[in-house]
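It is worth pausing here to work through a concrete case rather than discussing structure prediction in the abstract. The textbook approach is simple: state the sequence, then state the predicted structure, then interpret. We follow exactly that order.
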Amino acid sequence: MKKRKVAVLLSGGLDSSTILYWAIKRGYETHCLIFSYNQRHSAEIRKAVKIAECAGRPCTIVDIKLPWGGSSLIGRSGRIPPGKVSSKKIPSTYVPGRNTIFISYALSFCEAAKMDYIVIGANAVDFSGYPDCRPAYYKEFNKLLKQASLGKVSIKTPLLKKSKKEIVLLARRLKVPLRHTWSCYEGGRYPCGKCDSCLLRAKGFRQAGMEDPALRRNWAGQ
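Step two, the predicted structure:
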């Protein structure tokens, strides 16, 4: 049987690293797309490249710019809000249209490289309320892709309805090198432990009864 080919949108975080290993476990031929979009730090890009190297999979860094800003994650002038953000409102860390842009680039890549699926680590359970992470968004986007790609490319969202605890446990089963992942919105030497992304990640590890290996100081920078 012919191997299915997939483009994995890899950010270097817990979720995207887990879907990469999920795709490998399913026997897919994978290629990682890593986006550089003028985000406030490069830690996640370095970590994404490291994760791809650990998995032995090729990766491409797609360099795009979003000069109009609109998010505290773009550039360095915005302030990252501390603490848990309500999923009922859109926080300042939302990057306008980000997943739509990423998926559009991934579609172009898949058609050029004759790949079958786009795999993204979107989650709508323990998340920050971003509108482009909701199930309805991906349902409608897959309808669009049937027209845009003549039905040849579709999106897979294996983590969409999983809690952070379930994602952490899945990552452990898949032997994801969690010590190399980066989820923090800030770009310091160590995760800040205060932003929404850090708190959601900590919740997952706590509920899974696991220590987060990325918080061990001896792993920093590797």
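Step three, interpretation. The helical segments are 14-25, 43-55, 98-113, 135-148, 164-173, 196-208. The beta strands are 5-9, 29-36, 59-63, 117-119, 154-156.
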